[in-house]
Each structure stands twice: as structure tokens, then as C-alpha cells.
Amino acid sequence: METAREYLVNRFRTDATALRERADGLVRGAKVAGPDAAMSRRMAEACDEVASMVQALISNGDAQAAVDALLALVPLLEQRAQQFAATPAVRSVYQGAATRIREVHEAEQRSLDALTATLDAAPHGDTDGALDGALDGVDAFADDELDDDDLDHDSRDR
């Protein structure tokens, strides 16, 4: 089962790879609308930076702390976006990352809230049974509650 942190790291690394491939294609003469090869590489570097930020989050096994740590990245990403105000393509990477992290945070928080409610409602001493039932559809990354189709506005769409 993929954690929110792993999902985000993989997603931003995938975006970086796609942007580098785009840049390589442009260098080889491909004609595509959008940023030039140099800007595509700068955007890829920004995606790498975001992935590194997310990966650097310490995971101590506390799901609520992990979700809160993700959200704590948003102000930093918004600050990075402001630093690149003169470079809209790179700015959009940081803005898109902040948006994506908010969406993942919301999905994960809903999952944690549902799990907590299920466990709180379990008959005294039957948390194992309640936990088994609650986990059947709670994790956003185990049951496609949130997937790439839900997050179509990534950095390449900007």
C-alpha cells in the first residue's frame, strides 16, 4: 500500500522525468507548444525539489503527524512560487505542488477521520473487527479514492 508521501514523491519524480523527456524531444527538433527545452528543464528541477521536500519529511509511523507534515509544506511551496513570479512556468510547478498537496492532505484527513469514527463507534473491546472493516475502503491510495484522474491539473497542464 502506497502512503501519501510515497505517492507524492513518485508523482513529482514522474513529472520531472516527463519534463526532461519533453526537453530532450525539443532539442531533437520536436515541435510542441509550450515552454522551450531550457524552461522544461527548469520545471523538471523544480519538480525534483518538491519531491525532495516531500521525501525529507520524517515518517515516525504516526499517520496524523504525516498528514500534518505534508500540509506544513504548503507555505514553503507558496513562497517558492512567489520567488519565481517572473518565471510563470516554474512558478506553476510550485503552485501546482501546493494544490496537489492540499488535495492529498484533504483525502488523507478524510480517511483518518473515517477510521477514527469507525473505531470510536466499535463496541468496547472489538476494535480489531472495526479496524478490519474500516480499512476496507479508507486509504485514499488503496482504493483509488484519489488517483491521477482526480488530479489532472499537474505542472504539465499549466
Q: What's the quick description here?
A:
The chain is mainly α and 158 residues long. The protein is built from 5 helices and no strands. The chain has one domain.
Describe what this molecule looks like in 3D:
The chain has 158 residues and is mostly helical. It has one domain. It has five helices and no strands. The longest helix has 34 residues, at 88-121. The two termini are 30 Å apart.
Key features?
single chain, 158 residues, mainly alpha, 0% strand
Instruction: Characterize the main sheet.
Output: none
Tell me the Rg in angstroms.
Answer: 18 Å
Number of domains: 1
Count of individual beta strands: 0
Structural class of the helices, strands and pairings? mainly alpha
Describe the protein's topology.
Elements: H1 4-27, H2 37-55, H3 63-83, H4 88-121, H5 127-134
